[in-house]
């Protein structure tokens, strides 16, 4: 019966090849799905790549460049074509006055015009576009910095959840390993039945805690993918974030202060543009074509003309002064914000430095305590194997070990979060 199921001798090599191919594909899928650890750099690159805000700001820079070209083209001669026709009939003496309308008219003109504007005014307009591009470039850096901070913060949170999961898994493995031994010792009357049940309750609680930490890591991991714009339903393991404090020098070139510097330049240029708008404007034009009332010798009404125009504001009821005053108020507000930011900036950097130093000291103390707690667990496990340990003492030692490990993980994560904030302000 079994022989009828197996392939014949002729098809056996083909059958083996198919099995090997299926095995290789299965191994490849397994390695692809579960063998790849994701790093912080992977998420940062994906977040920057997928950010619609950064793409929008980059497109605005390109748009500003086009505006610069458009302004430059606007100062060159402009050519326009125009045509119009009119027919005003007079019927039985009723109609528009022929002295006004000429009864009918037809024209078709090609006009060339050019505005003569001072070089300083042109440079001021180009400076306005340049400042706009610089402001957008700095906005890109600020947005990218905000995005990096958000991704790093969530990555640290997810990594903390993963460490909690691994630690709880370690506790469950430890208790599960000793559960069989304790069961045998209980059957041999070395330990009481109540001791075994107390141990079993502790094991079940550890398993529930493990399930909770697994769920928390899945949630934090999914949030990390969401913030990064990554579509992936497979739960992968993330590596430890290697965060180091950025060496802090002088914040005068900080991207956060750069915007205030650009605003100051923008105000100066805006004052110039207001003054230039009140200077004389000179235009010349020339046209050629056909312009006729279609009366006698209408075929001779082809011609050309040239002309110019000059305009100069004389009195605007004080609007110019009001515009300058409005800009001055904005400058004053900007200076107030800048002074406030400088004070807050220095205070924030000093506070973060102090907190990081305090966490370094606290983590060193917890690590020392953790070594003693870990040694106590090992001693208790040895005593359990010989039946010379109270179950309550073992559970107290495990709870102490658990609390210290949790405390170490929480403080390590808090320290990484502070470094993330410090690096955010140090760019």
CATH superfamily of the largest domain: Outer membrane efflux proteins (OEP)
CATH class of the largest domain: Mainly Alpha
SS-based structural class?
Answer: alpha+beta
Main sheet: strands, sense, barrel: 4 strands, antiparallel
Distance between the termini: 75 Å
Can you list the strand order of the major beta sheet? 1-2-3-4
Strand content: 5-15%
Q: Estimate percent helicity.
A: 55-70%
Q: Main traits of this protein?
A:
about 425 residues; alpha+beta; Outer membrane efflux proteins (OEP); 2 domains; four-stranded antiparallel β-sheet; disordered N terminus
Q: Would you spell out the secondary-structure blueprint of this structure?
A:
Layout: H1 2-5, H2 12-34, H3 40-50, H4 52-74, E1 78-87, H5 98-101, E2 104-116, H6 119-187, H7 193-228, H8 255-276, E3 281-292, E4 302-311, H9 319-386, H10 391-425
């Amino acid at each position: 019966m079994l022989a009828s199921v197996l392939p014949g001798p002729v098809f056996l090599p083909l059958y083996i090849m198919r099995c090997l191919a299926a095995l290789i594909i299965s191994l490849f899928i397994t390695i692809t799905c579960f063998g790849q650890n994701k790093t912080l750099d992977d998420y940062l690159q994906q977040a920057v790549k997928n950010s619609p805000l950064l793409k929008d700001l980059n497109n605005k820079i390109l748009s500003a460049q086009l505006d610069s070209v458009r302004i430059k083209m606007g100062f060159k001669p402009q050519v326009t074509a125009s045509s119009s026709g009119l027919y005003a009939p007079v019927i039985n003496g009723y109609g528009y006055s022929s002295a006004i309308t000429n009864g009918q008219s037809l024209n078709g003109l090609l006009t060339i015009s050019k505005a003569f504007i001072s070089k300083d005014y042109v440079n001021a307009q180009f400076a306005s576009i340049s400042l706009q591009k610089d402001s957008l470039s700095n906005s890109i850096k600020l947005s990218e910095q905000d995005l990096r901070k958000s991704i790093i913060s969530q990555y640290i949170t997810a990594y903390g959840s993963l460490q909690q999961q691994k630690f709880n898994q370690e506790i469950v493995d430890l208790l599960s390993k000793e559960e069989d031994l304790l069961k045998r010792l209980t059957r041999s009357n070395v330990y009481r039945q109540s001791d075994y049940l107390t141990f079993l309750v502790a094991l079940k609680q550890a398993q529930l805690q493990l399930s909770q930490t697994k769920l928390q890591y899945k949630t934090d991991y999914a949030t990390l993918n969401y913030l990064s714009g990554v579509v992936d339903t497979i739960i992968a393991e993330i590596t430890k974030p290697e965060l180091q404090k950025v060496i802090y020098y002088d914040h005068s070139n900080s991207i956060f202060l750069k915007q205030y510097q650009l605003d100051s330049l923008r105000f100066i240029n805006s004052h110039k543009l207001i003054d230039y708008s009140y200077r004389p404007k000179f235009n010349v034009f020339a046209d050629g074509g056909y312009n006729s009332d279609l009366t006698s010798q209408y075929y001779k009404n082809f011609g050309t003309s040239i002309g110019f125009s000059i305009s100069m504001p004389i009195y605007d009821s004080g609007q110019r002064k009001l515009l300058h005053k409005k800009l001055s108020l904005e400058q004053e507000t900007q200076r107030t914000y800048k002074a406030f930011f400088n004070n807050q900036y220095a205070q924030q950097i000093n506070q973060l430095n102090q907190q990081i130093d305090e966490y370094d000291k606290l983590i060193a103390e917890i690590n020392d305590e953790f070594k003693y707690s870990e040694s106590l667990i090992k001693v208790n496990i040895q005593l359990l194997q010989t039946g010379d340990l109270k179950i309550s003492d073992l559970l107290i030692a495990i709870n102490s070990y658990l609390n210290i490990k949790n405390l170490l993980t929480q403080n390590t994560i808090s320290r990484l979060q502070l470094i993330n904030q410090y690096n955010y302000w140090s760019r």
